[in-house]
Structure formats: structure tokens, C-alpha cells
Design goal:
The chain is built from 26 helices and 16 strands. The chain has 859 residues and is α/β, with parallel strands linked by helices. It has a 10-stranded mixed beta sheet, sandwiched between helices. It has a two-stranded parallel sheet with strand order 1-2. The longest helix has 39 residues. One of its GO terms (molecular function) is potassium:chloride symporter activity.
């Protein structure tokens, strides 16, 4: 924004009503120091009609933001930090910290901007060589002007070091001065007689060219001439003005609406003072802007408005007062930004978002004034003063402020959309529409004022967001993202209609029962690969009676399970329950786990055997590589001699219950011996394999490769192969053939099935001859297999186990067909015994029984 010296750089403080605890409730009334120069600059180039339109648009954007500020400020206790505090407590530490840094820099640059503007105004009036009439005693050069700026900044520092009370008194004094200047100016429009004002043009070729402006007094002709636009070259910069450039300069004077909220930590009742002070200031400045625009258009000709931004001194009934008012207001704006920056820095340091980097800024005086934050802010402002370039700083300041305002609107919008019951601001004159309009207006203005600054600011904000996301500690403020996610998930769950399910879009939704995570770490990881973007729930049953307990013991265990999920990096939910037995607990979880259309359709259990459990959690890469301890809260593993928590009959009963509830069942044996990293990353050829046996080895007479269970088994093996970590593995499908049949016809039929299902697998023929049961009877060359589990001998099962084991090379994992448990519950132990014989020594093995159709050949 090209604003020379005091012409528009006198101050940004749009006003606030402050009740300061340090001064017993003293009030500082609204102060606006940019009214005079901006009004004459805007109406001089844009004319009255366009000027009024610019003011309306600018204050519409500001008004939307003010409504958001008031809503957040009245929704609970407000502490130090102003906009930073509002944003961080609403959007979380990442947004709050990054916006806090940018708001701190905006206030720092703003303070430097006003100091430099005041220096230019003083040098214009008192500098050597002379620029106009008057006393000229101050030498001019870069270093002299830096010295003047340092002295003025030191004065601001002294006021801020004393504390908020002296600042409030100084601000009130400056308000009285500016009010007197404004009153003098208004009277001068009526009291001053028409006159000609000689204007020296600084950008003329020889520096001595002049022009004459006219103050005509109230004249209808003058007003008519100033109604339309008359854009010309800015006499201070030599640049041609346009609607956008004039609007950008004008909007630069409207970005001080956070001046009151920055002092939120020093206000006695911030939730009361900030809305009333900010709204009063906005209304006050808007009315005065429009009033001055009309008075200027009715009394000053175009040349005077365009080429002499300081003409109000010439027409004033008391010119020195105008000069004093401009100087005082600019100094007030510099102090406002300096003390605002220190409060933001203090709030950032107190929240520990940047660790030790800001530890020094936490120190305060005995009265609570953050003196170290003030000193650090002063040092940064002093560094910015070395740039000495007003235009560069002005663009950055305005862009940073607009980005902060957009984020304030975003915070209010997020709180409104989250529909949290605790968002109950006492200020109710806002909606999500006003928030959206404020965001859109701020973003448009950022790019209208300076596209380069806006792009750089957004990039800087993104870098800060990423840095804080990965480096900042977790906070207890609450995350609006969680509330928004909950709101959206609830909405979409209601839209997820189970009646519209189709087999084409089926996916596994797993419930893995875990007794102790110490012995199931690799199984948890394996099932995570099997879920294929479906629901994954870790279930656990605690054998206790709530009637006999003082409180729910599961609440204290929840954090340990959630920490386990984070460390293992699995995408799983945790569901814990109390029950008198494991079987009852699994039933509860099968009935209640999930929500709406997201419910487990597959139960996964570890295998029931006599092997001693191994602590796989301590050896898991998530802990061994990071040298971190296993999360506390999980008891030691069961000793080999200790009794089990459930019997064999109860275990098989769980399988039977799941099948009755139309849940698919997976039994995983020796998955803790699966070293996935070694199996899948070894460089040796050929790649690791996954063996698939889609035939019921305990009931070979009923085996069909196209029944529901076999197809489900094929689907699960294919899903595992589709997981990123298992894509290098190859599927090997075993086709069991009987003597006297046509194996090639069966192979071709199976190959066509795999083609229809888009499953890539190698088919290997395996003869049944070696495992023909002792009870077989040959009738006309046909082998008759047993029709009941009780008729299968252990020798037959061991032979089947040997057949599976002999297939080389050894696979990474095997998938076998899981027979349905017998209807007679007295046969449950025998059923489990035969499963143990079948899978003995096979290494990582998954027994699969499917009850739902999961494959489709349709498009």
C-alpha cells in the first residue's frame, strides 16, 4: 500500500472499550487515527459514490469478522492472547500456534510500520533540507531516520514495560487529542472561508513544480464534480491509481479490529468489554469515514484531494492541533501493536507449543506484566525498523491481519457446524453464513491487495501447520476436528443403509478377540492386513462382575489399548466388555460392536492349544526399533502350568455361536511365528507363497470348490495378497483329485472360476490316494469318504496334515477350510482335537469358514 509518511500510516487501532484489572476498571474509549488521510485519498481518486461503496464493502467484511470475534469471546472465559487464544482453543494447537506466530509478526511489523510512518511525518515537517514552511532542524539520512525511529520505539517500550494501566491512560489521553482534532476538522469545514492551497509536487522533474488546489466551502458544483471517479497518478509515488489499488490502501486502515481482543488477558471482563468496544469502534469509524467523505467532496476540488494529503492542516482553524493529533495517534498505534505482540508472544510461550524456544517470554513482573515478552517483541520490532521500507511492510501487515481474521471466521464456523452443546455464546447475532462471508471476504481482499504477499503468507502458514503437527505436544484444549468428524460420521452412518448392501462391494469387517496383547501382537498386525479398508475391532473380555466392583475397571484399561493401537499402527477400534464367561463376552461383542452399517461380519480367534504363549509385543518392531517400553496396563502372560480362562467346549461353542449369528469365522494358529518382515523382504527367489486349500479335509466327500465357504476362503487369501505388504507373495491353490477321475477337466473348471473371479493363482494338483481313510469301501472304482466327523480317524487326519505339510516350498501362511462344528455339543472336544492334529506343525495357518456370499462376477 503506497501511503507516504503520515498520510495513512498514523494508526490502525480501530478502538475498544477496555476494563483493565491493573487500573481498577478504567475505560479507554474508541480511537481511530486513520480517518482523515484515508478519507481524502479515497474520495480524491474514487469519488463519493465509489468511496461510499468501498467503505460499505470493507466494513461488511470487517463486520462479519467482528461478529465471529464477539461470538467466540462470549463463549466462556477468555485469557491472554486475543485472537491466538480464540483460534487455538477452537481449532487446536496446530492452527492456533501457526496463526499465533503470524499474528505476532503482523503486530510486530505493524508497530514498525507506524514508527516509520511517524518518522517520515516528523522529517517532512522538521527535516533538513526543508520540504515546506516551518522549523527545519532534523538531519535526514537512513541512519538518522533509524535513530529517530529507535528513540520513538524506546518511548513505546517504556510505556509497555510499566504495564497495561499506564498504556490505558496514555490511550485515553490520545483519544481525547484525536477527538479534539476530529472536532476541529469538522468545525473547520464550516468555519474556514474559501481559499487556494499551493501544492508542491515532489515527483516533478526539478522538484520545484507546484499546483493549486481549492477549498471552496460547501458548493453544489464541487460536490457534483466529485461524485464520479477520477483516478490519476499518485503524487507521492508516481503510480497510476485504480479501483483495486485505492481499495487496498483504504482497507489497510480498517484492519485494527483486534486491538481490543489482544488485551484480553488484561481486561477485567473480556467477554463483556470486547464485543461492546469492538462493535462501537467499528460503527464509530464507519460513520466518521462516510461523514468526512461527504464533507470533503462538498468543499474541496479534485486537485486538492488528489495532490495534497495534508491539506487538512491548511484549512484547519488550528493547524498545530492536526499535526499533534496525527503524531499522537500514530504513536498510539505503534504502542497498541507492540503491547499486542507481547501478549500474543506471552500466550504462545505459556502454552509451550514451541518448547524452550519461547521459555524466556514466560517471565512476568510482580504485577503480572509479561516484561520479557515485551522486551523480545521490542527487539523484533527494532530489527524490522532496519528495513526502512514502508510500502513493503504495509503489504505484509495487511495480508497477515487478513489471514488472522479469516481464521477467526473459520474457528467460529467450525464451532457452529460442529453443533457442540457447549458452544453457547451469549452473543447470538451471527450465523454460519456470516462466518462464510467473512472468510470469503478476507481471502478476496488478501489477493486483491497483494497476490504475492497472500501466496507467501499462505505458504508460510502451511509450513507452520506441518511443523506444529509433528513437533508440538498434545494439548488438553479439545480439538474441533474431532467434533466435526463426529458430526459428519454420524450423518454418513445414518446414510449407510444395510438394506442396500451388495456383494460387489462386500469387504471384511473383523472382530479379533484378544486375551492379552502381549501374546497376540503379530496376529493383530496380520488381521490388519486382512481387513481391506473394512471395520477392524479389537475385542477383549474381562471376567469380572460389575455388581461386585466399586467402578468400571475397563475405563482405566481403555487408554492402554488405544496406545497399543497407535504404536502398532493398525487401523482398529477397541471394544472391551465385562462378562461372567468368555463365551458370554464374545456374544455381547458380536451383538453390540459397530454401529449402523458398520458391524463386524467376521470373527477372528486365536487357536486353542497347549502351546506356551510368547511375548511377541516385546519383540515387535514398533517397540524394538524405537527402543520404547511396552505399554503398561497389560498383565504378564499366562504361565504354561496355569489354568486357561475357557475350556475347549466353550471355545468351540464360541465358533458355533458366531456361525449361528451368520458371522464368518477365522481361527489363526501360530501366527506369532510369522515374521512378515523377513518373509516378504527377503531377496531370495522365488517370492514367498500363500497356500490355499479350499476343500474340507475332514469331509472330503462333501468338498466342492464353488461352495460358499470355499469361495470365502479364496476371497480372504486374495484380500491378503492385495494388501500392500503382501503384493510380492504368490497364491498357490491346491486341487485335490481322486483316483479314476478326470483331473484336467477339474483343473480347467477351477481355472475358469479363478478367471471369472479375477484371482491370480497357481493351481497344483494333489492326489487323495495317500490319505484314503481306513473305512473306505471301493464300489465300482469309486472311493466313499466318511460322512460324519466321528468316523474320521486320527490316522486319517495325520495323513491329511502330512499331505499339506509336504507341499514345498514352505509358504509364508496357509489358508485351510474350517469345518462347521458338530451339532452334538458332546463332540466339541473331538472336533477341536482333530483341528489340532490337522494344523500341527504347519506354521502360520488360518482356518476359514464362511457363511456369506462375498464374490461376484458382475461388473
Amino acid at each position: 500500500c503506497d501511503i507516504p509518511g503520515a498520510a495513512g500510516l498514523e494508526g490502525k487501532k480501530s478502538g475498544q472499550e477496555e476494563e483493565l484489572s491493573h487500573c481498577g476498571g478504567a475505560k479507554a474509549l474508541p480511537v481511530s487515527s486513520q480517518l482523515f488521510p484515508h478519507s481524502r485519498f479515497v474520495v480524491g481518486h474514487a469519488g463519493l459514490y465509489q468511496a461510499l461503496a468501498m467503505f460499505a464493502v470493507a466494513y461488511f467484511i470487517i463486520g462479519m469478522t467482528v461478529l465471529s470475534v464477539c461470538a467466540i469471546a462470549t463463549n466462556g472465559a477468555l485469557d491472554a492472547g486475543g485472537a491466538y487464544y480464540m483460534i487455538s482453543r477452537a481449532l487446536g494447537p496446530e492452527f492456533g500456534g501457526s496463526i499465533g506466530i503470524m499474528f505476532f509478526l503482523a503486530n510486530v511489523c505493524g508497530s514498525a510500520l507506524y514508527v516509520l510512518g511517524l518518522v517520515e511525518a516528523v522529517v517532512d515537517s522538521f527535516g533538513i533540507p526543508p520540504v515546506g514552511t516551518g522549523v527545519h532542524v532534523l538531519p535526514q539520512s537512513y541512519w538518522y531516520e533509524l535513530l529517530y525511529g529507535t528513540v520513538l520505539l524506546a518511548l513505546c517500550l517504556l510505556v509497555c514495560l510499566v504495564g497495561a494501566s499506564i498504556y490505558a491512560k496514555a490511550t485515553f489521553l490520545i483519544f481525547l487529542i484525536v477527538a479534539a482534532v476530529l472536532g476541529t476538522i469538522l468545525v473547520s469545514f464550516f468555519a474556514t472561508r474559501p481559499l487556494r492551497v499551493p501544492i508542491r509536487l515532489p515527483h516533478s522533474p526539478n522538484g520545484s513544480e507546484t499546483d493549486n488546489g481549492s477549498f471552496t466551502g460547501f458548493s453544489l458544483d464541487t460536490l457534483r464534480d466529485n461524485l464520479g471517479g477520477g483516478y490519476a497518478v499518485d503524487y507521492t509515488t508516481g503510480q497510476m491509481m485504480s479501483f483495486s489499488s485505492v481499495f487496498a490502501v483504504m482497507f489497510n486502515g480498517c484492519t485494527g479490529i483486534m486491538a481490543g481482543s489482544n488485551m484480553s488477558g488484561d481486561l477485567k471482563h473480556p467477554s463483556y468489554s470486547i464485543p461492546r468496544g469492538t462493535i462501537s469502534a467499528v460503527l464509530f469509524t464507519y460513520l466518521v469515514y462516510n461523514l468526512l467523505a461527504f464533507l470533503m467532496c462538498a468543499t474541496c476540488n479534485r486537485i486538492l484531494l488528489q495532490k495534497d494529503y495534508g491539506f487538512l492542516r491548511d484549512i484547519s482553524i488550528f493547524p498545530p492541533l492536526v499535526t499533534v493529533g496525527i503524531y499522537a495517534a500514530t504513536l498510539s498505534a505503534a504502542m497498541s501493536n507492540l503491547i499486542g505482540a507481547s501478549r500474543i508472544l506471552y500466550a504462545l510461550a505459556r502454552d509451550d507449543l514451541f518448547g524452550r524456544a519461547l521459555a524466556l517470554a514466560k517471565k512476568t513482573s510482580a504485577s503480572g506484566n509479561p516484561v520479557m515478552a515485551v522486551i523480545l517483541s521490542w527487539l523484533v520490532v527494532q530489527v524490522v525498523l532496519f528495513s526502512g521500507k514502508l510500502n513493503t511492510i504495509a503489504g505484509v501487515v495487511t495480508t497477515f491481519f487478513l489471514l488472522v481474521y479469516a481464521t477467526v471466521n473459520l474457528a467460529c464456523l467450525a464451532l457452529e457446524w460442529a453443533s457442540a452443546p457447549n458452544f453457547r455464546p451469549t452473543f447470538r447475532y451471527f450465523t454460519w453464513h456470516t462466518c462464510l462471508l467473512g472468510i470469503a471476504g478476507c481471502c478476496v481482499m488478501m489477493f486483491l491487495i497483494s497476490p504475492v504477499s497472500a501466496s507467501v503468507s499462505l505458504g508460510f502458514l502451511l509450513l507452520l501447520l506441518l511443523a506444529l503437527h509433528y513437533l508440538s505436544p498434545s494439548s488438553t484444549w479439545g480439538y474441533i476436528s474431532q467434533a466435526l468428524i463426529f458430526h459428519q460420521v454420524r450423518k454418513y452412518l445414518l446414510m449407510l443403509d444395510v438394506r442396500k448392501d451388495h456383494v460387489k462391494f462386500w469387504r471384511p469387517q473383523m472382530l479379533l478377540m484378544v486375551q492379552n496383547p502381549r501374546g497376540s501382537a503379530r496376529l493383530i498386525d496380520f488381521v490388519n492386513d486382512l481387513k481391506k479398508s473394512g471395520l477392524y475391532v479389537l475385542g477383549h473380555v474381562e471376567l469380572q462382575d460389575l455388581d461386585m466392583l466399586p467402578s468400571d475397571p475397563l475405563q482405566s484399561q481403555q487408554d492402554s489399548w488405544l496406545s497399543l493401537v497407535d504404536k502398532l499402527n493398525v487401523k482398529a477400534f477397541v471394544s472391551l466388555t465385562l462378562a461372567p464367561s468368555v463365551r458370554h463376552g464374545v456374544r455381547q461383542l458380536l451383538f453390540t460392536s459397530g454401529l449402523g452399517g458398520m458391524r463386524p461380519n467376521t470373527l477372528v480367534l486365536g487357536f486353542y492349544d497347549d502351546e506356551a504363549p510368547q511375548d511377541g509385543l516385546a519383540r515387535h518392531p514398533a517397540f524394538t526399533s524405537a527402543r520404547e517400553e511396552v505399554p503398561l496396563g497389560f498383565p504378564p502372560l499366562r504361565a504354561p502350568t496355569a489354568p486357561k480362562l475357557l475350556s475347549a467346549r466353550e471355545y468351540v461353542g464360541i465358533v458355533a455361536d458366531a456361525l449361528k449369528m451368520l458371522r464368518n469365522v477365522l481361527l489363526a494358529r501360530q501366527l506369532e511365528s510369522l515374521d512378515k518382515a523377513w518373509e516378504l523382504r527377503r531377496a531370495a527367489s522365488p517370492p514367498p507363497t500363500i497356500h490355499v486349500w479350499p476343500v474340507n479335509l475332514l469331509r472330503p466327500d462333501s468338498a466342492r470348490y464353488a461352495d460358499t465357504c470355499s469361495l470365502f476362503l479364496l476371497q480372504m487369501a486374495c484380500v491378503l495378497n492385495m494388501a500392500r505388504a503382501w503384493r510380492r507373495a504368490r497364491l498357490r491353490l491346491f486341487l485335490c483329485v481322486e483316483a479314476g477321475t478326470m483331473p484336467h477337466a477339474q483343473e480347467e473348471k477351477l481355472r475358469q472360476l479363478l478367471k471369472d473371479l479375477r484371482i491370480q493363482a497357481q493351481i497344483q494338483l494333489v492326489p487323495w490316494d495317500a490319505i484314503t481313510p481306513e473305512e473306505e469301501e471301493e464300489e465300482e472304482g469309486v472311493v466313499n469318504f466318511p460322512t460324519n466327523t466321528t468316523q474320521v480317524s486320527d490316522e486319517y487326519v495325520c495323513a491329511a496334515n502330512k499331505l499339506v505339510l509336504e507341499q514345498s516350498p514352505a509358504p509364508a501362511v496357509r489358508f485351510l477350510y474350517l469345518p462347521r462344528p458338530p451339532a452334538d455339543t458332546s463332540l466339541y472336544p473331538l472336533y477341536l482335537h482333530q483341528l489340532e492334529l490337522l494344523t500341527r506343525g504347519l506354521g502360520p495357518t488360518v482356518l476359514v469358514h464362511g457363511v456369506s456370499a462375498v464374490t461376484s462376477t458382475q461388473l
